[in-house]
Amino acid sequence: MSLELMLASSIVALLVILLPTLFLLSRKLGPSNSGNKAKNSVYESGISSPIGNSESRFSAKFYLVAILFVLFDVEIVFMFPWAVNVRELSLFGLFEMFTFIGLLLLGLIYIYKIKALSWQ
């Protein structure tokens, strides 16, 4: 048996034994959540009794706006290295960045055209 296989099997065996033991110890030694009504009651933003069901469905618009935000926010990450190396990239780098920003602008125009951000 190779040394790497022995090491990997011993790590797996250790995790199989150690993790359940730690969970059981934390359950036995940790504080219990006994029937204290004030401690177990819901409290959110100053409201002690919430209104409505917590399992209500959200509109897909929320998810669409979140995905679009992440999409356009990640593009900023690509602009930082360009801004740092703009002098070394010269005219070709400038043309590439204007092309990149132009594609982003076309995407934003498309999003406005299909009214993806309008709330109705």
UniProtKB/TrEMBL annotation:
Keywords: Cell membrane, Membrane, NAD, Oxidoreductase, Quinone, Translocase, Transmembrane, Transmembrane helix, Transport, Ubiquinone. It is an enzyme of class 7 (translocase). It comes from the Bacteria. It holds the Pfam family Oxidored_q4. InterPro entries: NAD(P)H_OxRDtase_bac/plastid, NADH_UbQ/plastoQ_OxRdtase_su3, NDAH_ubi_oxred_su3_sf. It is a multi-pass membrane protein. This is NADH-quinone oxidoreductase subunit A. The lineage of its organism: Bacteria, Pseudomonadati, Campylobacterota, Epsilonproteobacteria, Campylobacterales.
